[in-house]
Amino acid sequence: MKVREAVKEDMPQVLELIKELAIFEKEPDAVEISVADLEREGFGENPLFTCFVAEFDDEIVGAALVYFRFSTWKGRTLHLEDLIVKEAQRGKGIGEALYKQVMRFAYDRGLKRVAWDVLDWNKGAIRFYERSGAHIVKDWRVVHMDEKGLKNYINS
């Protein structure tokens, strides 16, 4: 298995991983993006994200997608949007290899923080993150407003 930065041609397999994650997170119909969206937004003149993939026998078995954010307290930070490993490949160190690559990417750039979300029922992930030295912030809530909410709010 090797971990490398994704190339545009990897995006069909990355999208399949994203769809698998949506099923795992009990949101099977939530994925709205396409391969073309991933290719355009990740590999254009000003890419919005960086993606790392784990490859085994010419198959992508995992991916981690990150992007830069700005913190008023810390400056430039990194957001780990998703870390995905194919269900059949879990427990083989693939997730940890991708996670380590993300942390190395942030460290090499002198970033002061990497942040991400984890579902409260994903106990295995929470234990892994805590063992790695990450701090699970329990008194903050993640807030999202979807397209319908945006429309309703701005038109109210």
Polypeptide structure, described:
Residues 1-155 form the N-acetyltransferase domain. The protein has helices at 11-24, 35-43, 94-108, 123-131, 147-154; strands spanning 2-5, 50-56, 59-71, 75-85, 114-115. The protein has 156 residues and is an alpha+beta fold. It has one domain: 3-Layer(aba) Sandwich (Aminopeptidase). Strand 3 (59-71) and strand 4 (75-85) form a beta hairpin. Helix 1 packs across helix 2. The mean pLDDT is 96.
What integer value in Å does the Rg equal?
Answer: 16 Å
Structural class: alpha+beta
How many domains would you count in the coordinates? 1
The helix/strand series, from N terminus to C terminus, equals EHHEEEHEHH
**Helix run count:** 5
First-to-last CA distance: 52 Å
CATH first level: Alpha Beta
Strand elements, count? 5
Q: Average pLDDT, to the nearest integer?
A: 96
How do the strands of the widest beta sheet line up side by side?
A: 1-2-3-4-5
Unreliably modeled segments: none
Q: Considering DSSP H and I runs of 4 or more, what fraction of the residues is helical? A: 25-40%
Morphology: globular
